[in-house]
Write a structure and sequence with these properties.
This protein has 214 residues and is of the alpha/beta class. The chain has 9 helices and 7 strands.
Amino acid sequence: MSLTRVIFLGPPGAGKGTHAVGLAKAIGISHLSTGDMLRAAVKAGTPLGIEAKGYMEAGKLVPDALIIDLLFESMGDESKGWILDGFPRTVPQAEALGTRLETAGIQLDGVILFEVPDQVLVERISSRLSCPSCGAVFNRITQPPAKEGTCDRCGADLVTRKDDAPEAVTQRLVVYKDQTAPLIAYYEDQGKLTRVDANRDIGEIRQDLDGIFA
């Protein structure tokens, strides 16, 4: 199976972002992360960024339609392909995205589901270390910084985010199963879903993904 326009789906901590970044760079397609796009648009002061900032400062969720507008704005030359990471999170979002893609004449090639047991996810995420300065992310177990507690990129002190605490991670997984897991059946019914065992060495997972994208 050869894919160029793909959604990465899976629970927090499953490795979607890590593999999306590596694969996109290796095969020359775009990595579209909704979180990154929102932050970049707000920082750049684009019309869509200004609109999104208004919702965020008011403590409201950014509407799905605005997120999709940002996605299409970030696609650029979509013929080169893309990996969509972080969206959709619900079936209504998937339906809205599908309608926009169809209207634009763009085919979604597939959805990759990263599967990891809950216990492993809690351990993974609660071991994360984040850099408040440059945004780099490390892991005490799988990807520790060269110097304990210090960012390899910029030298700032690393922190553990509140939403990465074990109790918070458990709640995030509850939300995932409630809102996002139904997407599995949604895309499986369309024949677009491919499952990947993400509870393995990063190199083994990457080998599987290289075969899927070949």
